[in-house]
Amino acid sequence: MALVLNEEQRLLQDTAREFLQQRAPVEALRKLRDSRDATGYDPSLWREMCELGWASIILPEAYGGLEFGFAGLGLVVEESGRTLSASPLFATGVLGASAILLAGNETQKETLLPQLAVGELTLALALEEHHHHRPTHVETRLAAEADGYTLNGEKCFVLDGHSADQLLVVARSSGEPDSSNGLTLVLVPRDSAGVRCTRTVMADSRNAANLQFDQVRVPAEAVLGRVGEAGPLLEQVLDRGRIAMAAEMLGLAKESFARTVAYLKEREQFGALIGTFQALQHRAAQIQVELELCQSVVLQALSTVDEQPQQLPLMASLAKAKLNELAKRVTNEAVQMHGGIGVTDELEIGFFLKRARVAMQILGDTGYHKDRYARLCGY
Amino acid sequence: MEQLETFRTEVRQWLQDNCPESQRSPALPEEQYWGGRSGSFAGEDARLWFERMHARGWTAPEWPEAYGGGGLNPQQARVLKEEMKRINARTPLYSLGIWMLGPALLEYGNEEQKLRHLKAITGGEIRWCQGYSEPGSGSDLASLQTRAEDMGDHYLVNGSKIWTTNADKSDWIFCLVRTDPGAKKQEGISFLLIDMATEGVSVTPIELISGESEFCQTFFDNVRVPKENLVGELNKGWSIAKALLVHERKLMSEMGSESPRLQVPPTAAARDYLDFVDGKIADAQLRSDLVDYEMQMQAIGLTHFRCFEEKAAGVQSAAPLVMKYAGTEAEKIKSELLLAIMGTRGLGWEGESFSAAELDTLRLWAMSKAMTIAGGTSEVQLNVIAKNVLQLPQG
Ligand SMILES: Cc1cc2nc3c(=O)[nH]c(=O)nc-3n(C[C@H](O)[C@H](O)[C@H](O)COP(=O)(O)OP(=O)(O)OC[C@H]3O[C@@H](n4cnc5c(N)ncnc54)[C@H](O)[C@@H]3O)c2cc1C
């Protein structure tokens, strides 16, 4: 019954909702933005989230995890989309944890995962080198030396890249710049000699950075998985990320839509509630239709991670493409239906609008995933 | 026709001789000259350019010379506009007075008002803002509540206006006020000009989602307004308000045809930010979105031209009524398209990792959301088309 939440999952979701709405509402993001907070999130709050087990939902118990499955993580991420909470949940809890779990050897898992679970280790996946998502377009080079490797290259749009303790860098050991063969995943402490980090202030007031690697020394133990063979594992990590981001966008869409519907029931013009105007009613109803469809897609995609890995690429592209479109549509309508107040910074709708645009670019825009879906289906 | 071509040659030469090189590129917000008591020029060239244009009456090319205008006919004004666009000449004076209030005063103002206010507008001395919307009256503008009471020798104004663009930088405000609370809502409204330096007027800026703060709430607390500031007849302000809205909507419908500020046109952005294979944009989705937008813009451009020719020929059609909707909706599509084309480079909020043009593109994207709300929302535009053009039964 992948499409209906069980008792435990509902409980997890309720707890997450309550916690986030009290401790990390949109107002908290506004404060981080306005104070130009250097970390971009509240580390003590992240500790608390870790105490609730959010960093370790998908980890096996052996490594200090909850072993609750990806579907559970998705529910928490969805709630964080409602509140636009800034935290390492996506970069560390989804991408970082998945990468180590899927690619790491036993020693790496035993040392890193328990730290990650309690909030002592944050991670950032340094992948992109282009302003459009191109996971195999990697020119950052990992060259073998007598006693390890050296890393040279540049990365952009690294989520949490300015704050994470360690960077999971996708580098090329061999092959042409756009080949999926020859990729290697290495773990590099952010404070290593030769790592230069420039935080980029993005529209959504969340955290990203551009990184430069200049003759960075990487010991052999820092390689995750096999040299030159990270391609297929990386795709799995990215698909998990895409699905989690779709879950976040579902939460974002639900919340901005709920606020808009509430406004339709409250604002009066022409002596009537604006919600009585059929021009608005039908558009709102159409969004409800899409929301229902997208809800099913996200639930199915989340449980695919746990139950049907062979369907993962297709479901990830379906979920990311559909939710990109939904998030764009809902946030645009939310602004429009609020009228003048909708374009003020005071109303929180603008935060949803801006986060949606960034989320739409994370791990593939709509066109990327439509094209991938079609290719996977053979047309 | 021949005369027009002679005029074109003359204009081209004059612009060549008089438009400073630095004024031949799109102006950033801080480079625009808006006039007014507190207005300032971004530099000596901007001042020179404004003064030269003003001396020819070309800050308001079509207004009569007696009011500081250029006395051009519509065809000549169009030629001037085209020639300015050809060399990217900046607008010498940005002004709501020129775009909105002026045309209404020319039609409804008395001679004294015209002489007093129009010259101050063309000369950039007084900056105007628009006091229509109120917290409770947006789409339903006619329900407005700001009151002006007849106190014998003056009006006493009380109430507040909202979303008043640039009220904090303006000298005067043209307002819709209720002068007959008993009458049907459209019949108790008057059009009043108010000096914002008058005691009792105050403004609070409101920040926009673009991070800019260009609109305000404007409060009127027992503000005494001389009776001579009433435009047109008492309680007949609604017709003036509507006539002015026509100018506002025309203006807004045309904003998309020019690339404002640093924003690059989508086709140019595609060349800079996308891969081409065999001369085609490799990303099929973006290619298709781009061509949709480009075709729509060409159709809009042609319709603007048709509106102009119809007006000159005295022909009426529905085209002018659809342009605000078409233009501002296309502007939103353009902004979304630019973000999609630029990918993560189009998502920067501030900082040196992004070019000035990239940052401006994002801010303009945010502002594009406001354009289908300001000046009458898209929904209101569609209601007008359904009612006035299609004459559909009204519920
Ligand atoms: C950037 C900006 C600048 C502005 N500058 C000025 C200015 O300088 N001076 C000034 O006076 N005003 C200004 N305005 C105000 C503008 O005119 C109003 O915001 C606009 O008329 C909408 O009114 P509202 O904001 O009250 O929205 P509302 O009227 O409350 O509308 C809310 C939603 O309901 C919809 N709606 C309302 N009635 C209907 C209906 N009958 N059928 C279907 N849908 C309906 C609207 O379309 C909108 O989607 C500005 C607005 C913006 C955004």
UniProtKB/TrEMBL annotation, chain A:
Q: CDD domains annotated for this entry?
A: ACAD (cd00567)
Keywords recorded for this protein, A-Z: FAD, Flavoprotein, Oxidoreductase
This protein's cofactor list reads: FAD
Show where the Acyl-CoA dehydrogenase/oxidase N-terminal domain sits. Answer: 6-120
Mind telling me which InterPro entries this protein's record contains? Acyl-CoA_Oxase/DH_mid-dom (IPR006091), Acyl-CoA_Oxase/DH_mid-dom_sf (IPR046373), AcylCo_DH-like_C (IPR036250), AcylCo_DH/oxidase_C (IPR009075), AcylCoA_DH/ox_N (IPR013786), AcylCoA_DH/ox_N_sf (IPR037069), AcylCoA_DH/oxidase_NM_dom_sf (IPR009100)
| Acyl-CoA oxidase/dehydrogenase middle domain ranges (all copies) | 134-216
Residues covered by the Acyl-CoA dehydrogenase/oxidase C-terminal domain: 236-375
Q: Identify a single GO molecular function assigned to this protein.
A: flavin adenine dinucleotide binding
Family assignment? Belongs to the acyl-CoA dehydrogenase family.
Identify this protein by name. Answer: Acyl-CoA dehydrogenase
Tell me which species this is from.
Answer: Parahaliea maris
UniProtKB/TrEMBL annotation, chain B:
The record's keywords, sorted A to Z, are: FAD, Flavoprotein, Oxidoreductase
Gene Ontology terms, MF aspect: flavin adenine dinucleotide binding; oxidoreductase activity, acting on the CH-CH group of donors
| A Pfam family recorded for this sequence | Acyl-CoA_dh_1
Q: Which residues cross the membrane?
A: none
The UniProt entry's GO CC annotations, sorted and at most eight, read:
plasma membrane
SUPFAM superfamilies according to UniProt: Acyl-CoA dehydrogenase C-terminal domain-like (SSF47203), Acyl-CoA dehydrogenase NM domain-like (SSF56645)
What are the residue boundaries of the Acyl-CoA oxidase/dehydrogenase middle domain, all occurrences included? Answer: 129-223
Q: Which InterPro entries has this protein been placed in?
A: Acyl-CoA_Oxase/DH_mid-dom, Acyl-CoA_Oxase/DH_mid-dom_sf, AcylCo_DH-like_C, AcylCo_DH/oxidase_C, AcylCoA_DH/ox_N, AcylCoA_DH/ox_N_sf, AcylCoA_DH/oxidase_NM_dom_sf, Mycobact_Acyl-CoA_DH
Where's the Acyl-CoA dehydrogenase/oxidase C-terminal domain?
A: 235-390
Q: Which residues form the Acyl-CoA dehydrogenase/oxidase N-terminal domain?
A: 3-125
What are its cofactors?
FAD
Q: Which family does it belong to?
A: Belongs to the acyl-CoA dehydrogenase family.
- State the protein's name: Acyl-CoA dehydrogenase
- In which organism is this protein found? Parahaliea maris
Starting at the broadest rank, the lineage of the source organism is: Bacteria, Pseudomonadati, Pseudomonadota, Gammaproteobacteria, Cellvibrionales
